[in-house]
Specification:
single chain, alpha+beta, three-stranded antiparallel β-sheet, two-stranded parallel sheet, 6 helices, 5 strands, 32% helix
Length: 157
């Protein structure tokens, strides 16, 4: 519900030109606009995906499971950065959402080495293979320690 409210608010503000153009990034997008079932944010994600660009509100959906993302949202993605995918359902979802992707390219997606991606869409006339450089910044995706465990302090509770 929180994501739904924030996205709706941003979309309305952008339509009224009260905030500058922006790109909304949804990591683990299958949780916010799932293909199966409905969550509170599903409708606004479909709306932003289909209408947001004309108001200056872009949407970047990131997922490791494209088959679990609403196909209406995926089909509106102009540009896709595709890393190695082996799950048949995910490959089918990618093939359905990327125009002109051949069966040969689907085979290539399954064989991509770590750090290599295929970029499609936008002004790219044919799929482009790119190397993604390793992160140069400190990894920040780890859980933080809030309360030390008794074994870490040598204490027993």
């Amino acid at each position: 519900m929180v994501v739904n409210r924030i996205c709706t608010y941003l979309f309305e503000l952008r339509k009224q030109d009260k905030i500058p153009p922006l790109m909304l990034v949804a990591e683990e997008a299958h949780n916010f606009c799932p293909q199966q079932g409905q969550v509170a944010s599903s409708k606004i994600f479909r709306t932003i995906a289909s209408e947001g660009r004309k108001f200056g509100l872009g949407l970047c959906v990131v997922t490791q499971r494209p088959a679990k993302v609403d196909k209406n949202v995926l089909s509106q993605c102009n540009t896709q950065v595709i890393l190695k995918v082996t799950n048949p359902n995910d490959l089918k979802a990618i093939t359905a959402s990327v125009e002109g992707l051949t069966s040969g390219m689907t085979d290539e997606i399954q064989r991509l080495p770590i750090g290599t991606a295929i970029i499609t869409g936008g002004k790219i006339t044919m799929p482009l293979f790119v190397e993604i450089r390793p992160r140069e910044t400190r990894h920040g995706g780890e859980s933080v320690t809030i309360v030390e465990r008794s074994s870490e302090k040598g204490l027993a509770y």
